[in-house]
Amino acid sequence: MSEAPPLPSLARNSHIKHCKLCLSGLPSSQVEMDSSRAAVGFYCLGALDLLGAKITDADRAAWRNWLWAQQTRGKYGTGFKPSTYMTPGNDSDYSEYDTPHLIMTYTAMLSLAVLRDDFARLDRPGILHLIRACQREDGSFSALPVGGEADLRTVYCAFVISSLLDDWSGMDVDSAIAYVRRCESHEGGYGQTPFGEALGGTTYCAVACLELAPSTAASPRETRMSPSHRERTIRWLLHNQTASGGFCGRTNKAADACYCFWCGAALSILGAADQVDSAALARFLADCQFKFGGIAKAPSERSDPYHTYLSLAALAIYPPPAADETWKLPSLNVLWNATTETARWARKHIPASN
Amino acid sequence: MVEALEAKKLKEHAKLKEYLALTDEVIVKKNGRDWSRDAFDLTTRVLHVNPEFYTVWNYRRHILVHGIFPTRSVLCTPPEINEILTTDLSLTTAHLKQHPKVYWIWNHRRWCLENVPVGPTEDDPDGWRRANWNKELFVVERMLDADARNFHAWNYRRYVLASTPVQRAEQAELTYTTRKIEANFSNFSAWHQRSKVLTSLWDSGKLDIKKSKEDEYELVKNAMYTDPGDQSVWIYHRWLVEPGNDYEILRREITSIQELLDEQPDSKWCMESLVFYHRLQLRNHSSRLTDTDKQGIVQRCLQLLNDLQAVDSPRRQRYIDLSTEVQKLA
After folding, report:
1. How far apart are CA B224 and CA B128, in angstroms?
2. B296: part of which helix (H) or strand (E)?
3. Which domains does chain B have, with CATH numbers?
4. Could you state one GO biological process linked to this protein (chain B) (predicted)?
5. Chain B, 255-274: which have a CB under 8 Å from a chain A CB?
6. What is the pTM of this model?
7. Do A274 and B316 touch (CB under 8 A)?
8. Among A143, A195, B225, B287, which one is most buried in terms of CB atoms within 10 A?
9. Which of B315, B316, B321, B322 to mutate to test binding with chain A, by most A CBs within 10 Å of its CB?
10. pLDDT higher than 90, residue A334
């Protein structure tokens, strides 16, 4: 077998610069990210965490304060908003228009853990109340207590928040698990909603949810995925690794760096990580590095924090064999999607102390 | 070069300033419960720049309900409401073309549709709704022509078909999927939709499952032979075969795929499917098989899995693991 060319280096400093820049501001072309600022912040911070970047005390304090400023209380409970874009003043109470957002609550909590916050300001009962307010009759969770998208992504966020709090009293677990199962696709994997095609992202969400939730009488963990669906799912996920080495997110689509995480992480949870070609994966992601910093969805595309973070997270799960020091990344808690160290900190500080 | 960069920076700055001014204005108005026409037009401008600004969609709907619909001293007449909602649907069609995957736009359309009043007359109470819902199906079809794999559009299509006040025959949807599939066998979303429609028709007894499946095997065989490298077809085929309890059909399909493999010796999907179907034979029909038969099948699988390690090398480890599994069935 002929020798493959050596893997180029992971341009760590360049990626750190990209994320730090994005934390300070985004160009007008990204205006649609205004309603997801807390999520963008998480991708940047998560990437900095994985790369072991130095964060100044001033920055750490500023970002922590900004995040806490998004925690808001009201009739549907407490949670984090995406940003202050709908709030003119400094009210910590919200109206119907600027309620907290479930996904942003998840990203804010993880971001604060990255920043080693002590979570003294966290309104735990309030957050449980929010989860309750967001759960719908079909078991899913809406992004906002007043409506919005309700699919496996928001379900995943509700599950991780509960897991972080180590308190599942905010939801009807059985009903939520039943919803997850209704999203099974005949291809293997899980669609975004029932009847949908399997998607890499929501397959990760489903598989993580089924693993995260404690066993209940009606839904013992071992019964949540039939052996045939498990086999189908592993098969579908493995076949998503394309000739380029990267993963695609759906049957017959092109490889995209973020699916290296979504599909790769799902396979890891399902115990099939050893069947992934990690050398090919790293080669693909190496090619996705953007010359001005950050990692893009595909070679020759522009980078962004989302693809940067998820690519690094995928590499943390699948370190390439025979690669230089630049590729060494800390281990990842696959279910919460944070470094093991950050997860440890979260486990210590987020649940209510007895 | 520096001048060009400076100019770009200034333009960027101006854009941001305009956006922030707009959003500030909207916030002030909504806090003041401004339900005026001016406020409505303002939301139009903001949403044009940023359709993800979901609270502004909410505000827009509140303006319609509290401000614009009740414009006279009595509630706005149904024809006027229909007119306004139809206009909003037209407006958001343009948004959709620019942003085909933004949930909030689809969501607003749903709201508009669901609020179209009964009318125009007592004799024709569904006229307006039929018109708007039919147009909606047309819009979704255009979206799917532009991007056949837009799953938001497919989900929305399923919603429209389920919710339209005058129900279409499910068979019509089957025909739609046939059209999309024949246009492009790689359109997995169309195959997927087809599987959902068929399941529904079979469950309700509207189509005889046995006869229907035979038609599907014909369709799939045609697609398989046209492009054996297309994953969609093999997933659909597997869906037809599973759980693999009909021995005759299982054997027939194995023979058919083997014939294709003989013509296309490097086809990984042929090989991979054969392994899977042979395993189904061993798992589900071992009572029909002699020991010699079983040994033969196991050997065949091991041969195929060996070939697959070369032909589909990214998944080498999987095929090695499967070989171990298969040997246990010997």
Report:
1. 45
2. helix B291-311
3. 242-330 (1.25.40)
4. prenylation
5. none
6. 0.93
7. no
8. A143
9. B315
10. yes
